[in-house]
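tmp note - Taspase, threonine aspartase, 1
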Amino acid sequence: MWAVAVHIGAGRHAADAASTALAEASMRDALELAGCLLRDGASATVAATAAVRVLEDAACTNAGSNGPCVNLTETGVIETDASIVDGHSGGIGCVGAVHGVRNPIELAAALLRGADTSRDDGRTPPMVLVGAGAVEKARALDVEFVDYATTPIDATALRKHALMQSHSLDTVGAVVVDVHGHMAAAASSAGIALKAPGRVGPAGCPRMGCVAWNATQSPNGYAWAATGRGEEIMRTGLLQQLEGRFRRKTALDAATIDHNLTRAFNDAAALNHDVGVEGGVLGLLRAPSTSHGSSRKRRREEASSSKSKVAARLPATHVVAAFTTPSMGLGVYCSDDSAPRAQIVRSMEKDVLVVHVLPCNEQDQAALARRPTLQCVQSTDMTKNS
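out:
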């Protein structure tokens, strides 16, 4: 089986029908492309890159090199960040404060691919590049650029900049597991409005905007992508809090997932002067097969049962989302789904951590049919738990 989930940020998304329809359609487009690639056997990193590229080009996101919703720096320039993590190899590709590259995730993915090759001079290829160095590398790799002389910055983005306005905290991201069980995560953002030139947010920092690890290399596999107030995400190590809880052996039922998410957000708040992190996370959690770590005798016993064979062949996989903001844009597509599902999930309460869990397995096909949208399993008051 395979699965892909995407987000278009945690913040305050417009509630009118037209804006909601555009956002959900953009997420479905990203999921359709990634799902098509995964169905044909593409790797998790290829699918994650493709999904994020679609979201970078979408008109409703603060990602990519142009568009009505991108944020500009203090000087009126678009600078973007992007990163990708391969849970199979542990490889990372990151770019930050990049100007003019149409799809920064493509440059980050190129750095990830380059990290697996050796240079003729024996030097280690870079996994992180920022600013002018990243732009120079993009030109060397023939990555596509935007010519702002012929395609000026979108008028809506310029008007928003002039009025010193910002929309939602719109980092975009994708988390993927491919047919081989390999995990990947990717993130991209144009950053906060009126940011200092050269500022790099979590989407451009190694393992700050996204992380991934395979279930074959630890008791549980995971892919996480973060979104929200970047400085808080980096200061608190939010994704590292999640890694610490889900990398070790732990049950992947809804109640345990909710408990660990709540504890991770509370631990992050403790590092943020007891203020809850403003933002959210999207994750894929994957347990190893039931035969993982079992004795030879136990494996023989499992092999004698056709039911056990199915369980061993199909590890439990869950899509997870949690956010403390008024809304978060989420999309999910699993190999058993007839079509991608996308929605702007909204919370009616302030300073509350909302957690959603959705099983994504062949044996859960009937349950998936009954649950066309993500379902909230817990709402936690962060003012009381932080």
